[in-house]
Write a structure and sequence with these properties.
With about 180 residues, the protein is an alpha/beta fold. It has one domain: 3-Layer(aba) Sandwich (Rossmann fold). Helix content is about 45%, strand content about 15%. The chain has a six-stranded mixed beta sheet, with helices on both faces. The protein is globular.
């Protein structure tokens, strides 16, 4: 996907759902995967010409696994002029100790999001951007229909009462094929 197309999809979602307001401080959770890096590119690029001013901070929750190399992510953040923070955790060790009957993926996701949201608050950000794209939303709706008997997907903007943060999903119009192609 060309950057212009990525910016167009992202800006449309931001405008349609008023995701970003003047002087918002937005944290982007960076796993190092295609989705989160695409989101970082999109939001960093839009800063240059979007009429609403906002700041960005990139955050990686380090699960505590050895040899987790973040050199390339650090370099990308520097290139995009986005402050980058690594949050060390022992989530990997906690997951390893858990009973194998329970879903380690579910527990890991909850712990990771908790660590991310805590870091977002400590860094003074008021919003956190998740890299859910169009295919993620469709998949969530179908799984919800099949397994819960209801037609549900996460909304474009969610307010988290406990942490007083807003979660935004600026890639919601971007098809996964375009994320992969980016």
């Amino acid at each position: 996907m060309k950057l212009q197309k990525l910016y167009s999809y992202t800006r449309k979602a931001i405008d349609d759902f008023q995701m970003i307001k003047e002087n918002d401080s937005i944290a982007v959770g960076i796993s190092g995967g295609k989705d989160s890096l695409t989101l970082l590119y999109a939001l960093a690029g839009l800063r240059r010409f979007y009429p609403v001013h906002y700041s960005l901070t990139a955050i990686t929750v380090d699960l505590g696994y050895p040899d987790f190399d973040l050199t390339e992510i650090k370099a990308l953040c520097q290139k995009l002029d986005v402050p980058y923070h690594i949050i060390p955790t022992q989530i990997g060790a906690i997951i390893k100790e858990q009973n194998k009957k329970n879903s380690p993926c579910s527990l890991c996701a909850k712990l990771r999001k908790g660590a991310l949201n805590q870091a977002v608050i400590e860094l003074g950000c008021n919003k956190v951007a998740y890299a859910h794209h169009k295919d993620d939303i469709i998949e969530t709706m179908l799984l919800s229909l099949m397994f819960e008997g209801r037609f549900y997907a996460f909304p474009p903007v969610t307010h988290l009462d406990r942490s007083n943060l807003d979660v935004i999903r600026p890639l919601m119009y971007v098809p996964e094929v375009d994320v992969i192609g980016f």
